[in-house]
Amino acid sequence: MYQVDKLYEAVAAKGPVCVGLDTAVEYLPPGERRRAASDAEAVLAFNRAIIDATADICACFKIQIACYEELGLAGLAAYAKTLACLRERGALVIADIKRGDIADTALRYAKAHFTGDFEADFVTLSPYMGMDSIEPWLSYADSRGKGAFVLMRTSNKGMRDFEYQELKAGGRLYDVVGDRLTELAAGRLGNYGYGAFGAVVGCTEPEEAALIRKKRGNLFFLIPGYGAQGGAAADAALLLREGNGGVVNASRSILRAWAANGITAEKDAADNRFAAEAARKAALEMRDAIRIAAGLRT
Amino acid sequence: MYQVDKLYEAVAAKGPVCVGLDTAVEYLPPGERRRAASDAEAVLAFNRAIIDATADICACFKIQIACYEELGLAGLAAYAKTLACLRERGALVIADIKRGDIADTALRYAKAHFTGDFEADFVTLSPYMGMDSIEPWLSYADSRGKGAFVLMRTSNKGMRDFEYQELKAGGRLYDVVGDRLTELAAGRLGNYGYGAFGAVVGCTEPEEAALIRKKRGNLFFLIPGYGAQGGAAADAALLLREGNGGVVNASRSILRAWAANGITAEKDAADNRFAAEAARKAALEMRDAIRIAAGLRT
Fold first, then answer.
1. Domain holding B103: CATH number?
2. Within the 71-90 window of chain B, which residues sit less than 8 Å (CB to CB) from chain A?
3. pLDDT tens for residues B221-270?
4. Residue B298 included in any domain
């Protein structure tokens, strides 16, 4: 069974929210950060609180490795411990690592992120170097059901620089990436019609969303761009199919929900428990908004 | 002063070889691996021997992080210690991390790889998401002279999948990436006419090489594809200008030189000292072959 099937089932049961553990130290309640033995310890304790508060109402978690690498070796230890915490709780996790290297090197990365200290269920990959930077990862789809989301059309401003380039043969660069990913998915199709490997498609260009969803029927989507990057529930829903077939990521708006509602003088008093409650509330609101936009009952 | 200026001076003084510390455990003399307390320790000891044996005859080192990530946290500790060893010896190092993420995330990666445990002089970057995945790194060019090599036209087979796509407006995708990198370099030009940020251009397509070198006058090149991937000294020389303006990477052919010359029965006896001598010999031969092909005296 591919992890993408488990992800499909998680979305059906718990909604399409992907909680982004892009846990920058500046997102933490300042008091918690001050009290902790180190920034890395503070990040780990915060993550545990967020995971406990949201695991039953989100499909999965995404963990942005850059936030941990920034803290050096201690940060990567916190990264490994956060992954261990997620595995203990049976939560699905996407390692947002955007690796893109070839052949032997790709296999080494795959071993690093699909086994051992840094084991995740899914990774994100960058396709620039070509399909020989994606295909080696498939051996872990075959042996362990692991999955990947390959950058196709992202949600940042710079996506227009290269992803949007119009090709001589017609279409844009991201269409050709999509074509190759569609082939890949067809070769490893799960129980719900989605391939083991899917794509990253941002919800910031709603005019294209319905077309992309229709054209890429067998690709499960990791959908960034919600909230802070401007995407709304209605935009995200366009990339889903009956509310499934994708997970919608939010990071800052969930992790920093503790700071959002008029907490200013009391900011220092906010602790992880308070932050976790605020995160749960934000994730629930997001889930319900997307479900409603997708035409489902909440 | 930009690190690219130091790199230019290193090439002038010591030749264009970049020794790739893509130190997979299976590259080590088996006896050394067996004797070491752990694979990560074995890799570190081997790296120290290779660095000591080649630092005076190579321009710089490249360190492929995947080989260390593969060993988990212990591997990344060996990665950090290898970088520390290179800094102690005053050697220039390119962290081959091929990161490509945007905005805040890019800044976190830049902090991770230009300061602290994982500090390097240069990194490799992937441009798929657009220039907002490259530009944040420039703040470290301004504050600390750091540099980057952005994937432009690589040396793997899969480069034809996307990098080679012909564009409606003319040229190929890698040309547009090259155009943007040329602009970037023009804004941060070092003392020898090369920008702080350069490009990765493989030496596997000699028919294009002279044109690329001519068109990208202000880009310093990191040149993969030599040896194991089929590039010859003459091909690499086409991407240089009077033997400078780029560094030519070789990994396996240098690290595994100990195994190359008929060592079979004695394989187990080969130790790090033997491997280091063989690596030095291989690097010297490569340096001289490229210098001759570039029309210089060795």
1. 3.20.20.70
2. 72-73, 75-77, 80
3. 999 999 877 789 999 999 999 999 999 999 999 999 998 765 654 555 67
4. no
